[in-house]
Specification:
The chain is of the alpha/beta class and about 375 residues long. The chain folds into two domains: about 240 residues, Aspartate Aminotransferase, domain 2 (3-Layer(aba) Sandwich); about 100 residues, Aspartate Aminotransferase, domain 1 (Alpha-Beta Complex). The protein is about 40% helix and about 15% strand. The chain is built from 15 helices and 13 strands. Strands 2-8-7-6-5-3-4 form a seven-stranded mixed beta sheet, with helices on both faces. A four-stranded antiparallel beta sheet has the order 9-10-13-12. Strand 9 and strand 10 form a beta hairpin.
């Protein structure tokens, strides 16, 4: 019996991408086997983390790396590391930051909410978030003003679909902070395909998810310069004790990194393009639907599908279509469109199997009144 039957869980088709409320991602067989093997073994965790440190450094082209419980905890621990370094006294004191620099500057549009506010992840370390600019934009002058405070511990920048508005290039923002001697943390979330690019901005620490496109168990990956990464690892003697990675998570990350190293990325991109083209052709043949590709807004190496709904021809608007897909069995989860007032839905097909895409097309055909001539 499958786990859905065993535990009475809702059967879903996840066309939202690596979305935490839907279980994030699927792991490859090699990752699953490695995790299962880890569960029945004892290991010296310090040694295992050393192995992961080296593997992450190779993967990212960074000086060092480490694995923590998840990306949210990685943000908290990265901020903590900028306040404490490897000082045992300071690490033990957190979240009491008396006598420490503790202001974390971030653009207002980067104060995202990914299930909880990123500002709360900052406050969990005992730091104080200080936003600059507006939701619509921020300038280098805004950053300069925020970084001029005497108690700044780091600049926090976010590379995510959730970021609002426009602003300076990440590398320019990093340079502004470094001119003042302020370290920079970049939250890369689902950006493991772009981790080298994020590091090239000059950021001191970059955090990404292990369980999104890498497909490891739940894990946060922190890469960057050796000293701040060591300070992140040192947090396990303090607040990081509640955010530590398990043996199976670290082993799963190592297996996922090995799988990525063996991946023919060009071939993988073509497979994603072919999958998308087939879906667009079939979905676009339905009355009231215009389908096409749309680039990932953060520059990931694949496109998503956009279906635009003509309510007059289809008999329902985009919101009604989304509800109908959601309420069926299996429940099909898609994303609402990003354009203000547009009658559209977005689908990410990367994690889906051919049979699941067939089911989506069939469901759309059932819900809409008929095919175009």
């Amino acid at each position: 019996m499958g786990l859905h039957s065993t535990y009475g869980l809702t059967r879903i088709i996840n066309a939202r991408g690596p979305y935490t409320p839907l279980g994030v991602s699927r792991s490859e067989d090699g990752v699953t086997a490695a995790v299962a093997a880890a569960l029945s073994e004892f290991v010296v965790m310090e040694e295992l983390q050393d192995v992961a440190d080296r593997a992450l450094a190779r993967f990212a082209g960074a000086e060092a790396g480490t694995v923590v419980h998840c990306t949210a905890s990685a943000i908290t621990l990265a901020v903590a590391a900028t306040m404490t370094g490897e000082s045992a006294e300071r690490i033990a004191a957190l979240p009491d930051t008396t006598g420490m620099p503790r202001a974390v500057v971030l653009p207002a549009g980067h104060a995202v909410d990914y299930g909880h506010p990123i500002t709360q992840a900052v406050r969990l370390a005992g730091a104080v978030p200080v936003t600059v600019g507006t939701d619509e934009t921020y300038t280098l002058e805004d950053l300069e003003a925020g970084l001029a405070r005497p108690d700044v511990t780091c600049l926090l920048l976010v590379s995510s679909r959730l970021v609002r508005g426009a602003g300076a290039e990440l590398s320019e923002a990093v340079a502004v902070a470094h001119r003042r001697g302020v370290p920079v943390v970049v939250d890369g979330a689902a950006q493991d395909f772009r981790i080298d690019e994020l590091l090239r901005t000059g950021a001191d620490l970059v955090t990404v998810s292990g369980q999104k496109y890498l497909g490891s168990p739940t894990a946060g990956l922190v890469v960057g310069r050796a000293d701040p990464v060591a300070a992140v690892r040192a947090q396990e003697r303090g607040i990081g004790r509640a955010m530590k990675a398990s043996k199976e998570a670290v082993i799963g990350v190592l297996a996922a990194l090995e799988a990525r190293a063996e991946l023919d990325v060009a071939q993988w991109k073509q497979q994603q393009a072919d999958k998308l083209a087939d879906f667009v052709t079939r979905a676009g043949a339905l009355r009231g639907i215009t389908a096409g590709p749309v680039p990932d807004p953060t520059g990931l190496p694949f496109e998503r599908a956009r279906i635009e709904v003509d309510p007059a021809a289809s008999g329902m608007d985009a919101a009604a279509l989304e509800r109908a897909l959601y309420s069926g069995s299996p429940s099909i989860r898609v994303m609402p469109g990003c354009r203000q007032g547009a009658q559209e839905l977005l689908l990410e097909l990367v994690p889906l199997r051919p049979a699941e895409i067939d089911t989506i097309v069939a469901r759309l055909g059932e819900l809409l009144p008929g095919r175009q001539d």
